């Protein structure tokens, strides 16, 4: 990674038609993830389906969809957050996905760091997420950032086996 990485920002998704199309292109650059997740056909990700799913994310109490942009305004990542999980009261990362052409460049690590900084700044004690058991690359990524496994269970939305990870922010 360069000594002075280019600026990276996270801001709420504006839901413009162009921005949704950018998200679809980013999703399409990650076919292996969508094959593992089973939520979209990697070869035919529909704009309407993505928009509906992202609107459902923000409709949940405390739900947010943030877009990560580099210093030139290019979309480099998407982050879905839940500010307070109804069962444990902690914030959760529902999705952090980086443009497939930018994988292994540090952008995912930096986006995760921005999310952690935000919740740490709010005085939150920890943060959680769930990784699909069939996604060992994601598990390796999160554990390399200091996240620890605390549970294994099925996700509520699609009944897939997941590994629940926690990171202390204290």
Note down, in words, how this protein is organized.
Helices cover 33% and strands 29% of the residues. By secondary structure, it is α+β, with helices and mostly antiparallel strands. It has a 7-stranded mixed β-sheet with strand order 1-2-3-4-5-7-6, with helices on both faces. It starts with 7 loop residues before the first strand and ends with a strand. The model has no long low-confidence stretch (mean pLDDT 93).
Low confidence ranges: none
Query: Strand portion, in percent?
Result: 25-35%
Write down the overall geometry: globular
Tally of helical runs: 5
As laid out across the biggest beta sheet, the strand order is 1-2-3-4-5-7-6
Topology:
Elements: E1 8-12, H1 17-28, H2 31-37, H3 47-59, E2 63-70, E3 75-82, E4 92-98, H4 107-121, E5 126-132, H5 136-144, E6 148-154, E7 161-168
Parallel strand pairs: 4-5
Antiparallel strand pairs: 1-2, 2-3, 3-4, 5-7, 6-7
List its salient traits.
29% strand; seven-stranded mixed beta sheet; 170 residues; alpha+beta; 5 helices
In short:
The protein has 170 residues and is an alpha+beta fold. It is built from five helices and seven strands; from the N terminus they run E-H-H-H-E-E-E-H-E-H-E-E.
């Amino acid at each position: 990674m360069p000594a002075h990485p280019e600026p990276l920002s996270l801001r709420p998704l504006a839901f413009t038609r162009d921005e949704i199309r950018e998200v679809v292109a980013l999703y399409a650059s990650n076919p292996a993830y969508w094959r593992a997740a089973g939520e979209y056909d990697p070869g035919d990700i529909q704009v309407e389906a993505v928009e509906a799913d992202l609107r459902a994310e923000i409709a949940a109490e405390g739900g947010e969809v943030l877009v990560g942009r580099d210093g030139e305004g290019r979309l480099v990542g998407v982050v879905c957050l839940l500010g307070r999980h109804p069962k444990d009261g902690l914030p959760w990362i529902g999705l952090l996905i980086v443009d497939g052409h930018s994988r292994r460049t540090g952008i995912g690590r930096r986006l995760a760091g921005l999310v952690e900084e935000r919740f740490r700044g709010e005085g939150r004690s920890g943060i959680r997420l769930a990784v699909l058991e069939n996604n060992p690359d994601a598990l390796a990524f999160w554990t390399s950032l200091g996240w620890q496994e605390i549970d294994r269970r099925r996700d509520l939305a699609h009944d897939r086996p997941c590994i629940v990870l926690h990171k202390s922010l204290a």
